[in-house]
Write a structure and sequence with these properties.
The longest helix is centred in the last third of the chain and has 19 residues. The strands form two sheets. A four-stranded antiparallel beta sheet has the order 3-2-1-8, covered by helices on one side. The protein is of the alpha+beta class. About 20% of the residues are buried. The protein starts with a helix and ends in a 6-residue tail after the last strand. Helix 1 crosses helix 6. Helices cover about 30% and strands about 20% of the residues. It is globular, with a radius of gyration of 19 Å. It has one domain: 2-Layer Sandwich (Dihydrodipicolinate Reductase, domain 2). A hairpin with a 7-residue loop joins strand 5 and strand 6.
Length: about 210
Amino acid sequence: MWYATHAISPLLAIADAQAAQAHCFGSGVMRPELREQYGNPWPVETAIYQLDRPSLSAEVTRTLFHCARPYMESFTVYGENGCYKWQMEDAPPMLFRASQVVPNEVRTVTASQPAAPDRADLLPQEIARYTQRFVYDDANRHLSFEQGGGHHGSHPHLAHEFVSSIVERREPWINAARAASWTAAGICAHLSALQNGVEVTIPSFMD
């Protein structure tokens, strides 16, 4: 959870909220050489966050290696009429929709796998192509580019927003305070795990 920003930030951004408290537990036994290198006793950590919006919480599980599955930086959003689940690196997301509420009747649920839209249309033409998988050349291959501009096409959007904020003389949407809040959520969760899941209050940087 020390490096959990990629898993935490989508949840907090979608909820338009900040993490206020964390309880986190470790699971498994890290191999000795990895435990010595990283100072982390667990290959898996799971955190429960209380957000600063009423009746809203989030769960984040992190494992980067030492586990017989691809690493996860994913999220699931739960709602009464629909749920959205993105979990595997190379698999499409799942969208669940429930039928209308009818008294005394069981609701039906349908599932689909919609492809996430490529929002290159939101970018200047000069950088729009970088949302797709590409490599500079065979001598300069890198996974972040092959995935599509880094993290599924997000990098050109992040860069465009940051440069635009400078040109327009305004704060970027992901400013220093928001970035600190997202980072602190992971660090505080790890501190909770090191103390057997005690509640850790996450400092607020957004005030």
